[in-house]
Amino acid sequence: MELKLVEQLLEKYFQGETTIAEEKQLKAYFSSNDVAPHLAKYQPLFGYFEIQKETQFKQKLPLQPRKQNTVKWIGIAASFAVLFGLATFYYPSFSKQDDLGTYDNPEEAFIATQKALKMVSEQVNIGMESVVYLEEYEKSKKTIFK
Asked: How many other C-beta atoms lie within 10 A of the C-beta of residue 8?
């Protein structure tokens, strides 16, 4: 093979632009004995591919079935659920709550309801302030993207 052609193919090879046929030409050239001295440094590269193509993996791999860890974790979670259930059954202070929100006097209930509704109203008003910004955004978006 002509030396100039080999150098051009090497350049294309290192740029990743060679075809399979051109790579076969390079492999054939570098596997021969008449390689130019300044290109001898590339000979192990192409020789490596030929050597590795012939090697085979002969060691047996021990294949073991994968253990099911999910069953173990489900058992652990179920045991925690059972323990938590037993703890709430035997220690009722965990599950008992004070009777909140019950009033004997209707006037006290009315005042408490007014306080709760005032708090909800304040939170809704804060939320509505942020909606105003969204409306401005929609208006400006409509003017820009007509």
From this structure: 13
> pLDDT: is 96 or 21 the higher one?
21
Residue 63 pLDDT grade (very low, low, confident, very high; cuts 50, 70, 90)? confident
Give per-residue pLDDT as tens, 24-53. 888 888 888 788 888 888 888 877 767 777
Q: How far is CA 104 from CA 77, 101, 108, in A?
A: 44, 10, 8
Q: How many CB atoms lie within 10 A of CB 29?
A: 22
Indicate the DSSP class of residue 100.
-
Residue 14 to residue 66: CA distance in whole angstroms: 43
Q: Distance (Å, rounded) from C-alpha 67 to C-alpha 70? A: 9
Whether the Cβ atoms of residue 12 and residue 21 lie closer than 8 Å to each other: no
pLDDT band at 1 (very low <50, low <70, confident <90, very high): low
Rounded Cα–Cα distance for residues 141 and 146 (Å): 8
CA distances from 127 to 2, 75, 136, 138 (A): 80, 45, 15, 17
Cβ-in-10-Å burial (0-12, 13-18, 19+) of 104 comes to exposed
